[in-house]
Amino acid sequence: MTDKVASPMWQALNDLHTEVQKDLADVQASLKDADKRMAGGKGDVWVGATARGWAKDLTGAASDIVTQANGFAEYVSRELAAHPKEVTPAVADTERRVLAGRLR
Questions:
Q1: Measured distance CA(18)–CA(23) in Å, rounded
Q2: Per-residue confidence at 38, pLDDT binned at 50, 70, 90?
Q3: What's the chain look like in SS3?
Q4: What is the pLDDT of residue 15?
Q5: Among 16, 40, 101, 103, which residue is least crowded by beta carbons within 10 Å?
Q6: Residue 87 — pLDDT band, cuts 50, 70, 90?
């Protein structure tokens, strides 16, 4: 029986998961202030027909970034949950090479 060692891939995923969770609220809020100030083209920064069109695009972009950020966070969580925390030394070696970009 081969002893297990810590998985470098699991650790990398865990580190990424921590960073994503830490930054998720900032990413989700990134366009909300601008969207609120535009108020659908009737806000305090720009008004008129062009502003309404731009505000519609901004609202869509704000929604898209929240969807994409949440989707990425969920993806990282799934990958972390699916990866073993401990692996054989040979697998750990392969994972280190993959993480270093020396193996694809």
A1: 9
A2: confident
A3: CCCCEECHHHHHHHHHHHHHHHHHHHHHHCCHHHHHHHHHHECCCCECHHHHHHHHHHHHHHHHHHHHHHHHHHHHHHHHHHCCCEECHHHHHHHHHHHCCCCC
A4: 98
A5: 101
A6: very high
With a CB cutoff of 8 Å and minimum separation 6, the contacts of 58 are 31, 34, 35, 38
Rounded CA-CA distance 72/91 in Å is: 26
- The structure tokens listed for 30 are 């990134």
* Best CA proximity match to 41, nearest among 32, 33, 49, 31: 49
Decide if 8 contacts 64 (C-beta within 8 A). no
Exposure of 76 in the CB half-sphere (CA atoms within 13 A)? 18
Angstrom CA distances, 21 to 24, 39, 74, stand at 5, 29, 10
Q: Which of 11, 28, 20, 8 has the alpha carbon at shortest distance from 74?
A: 20
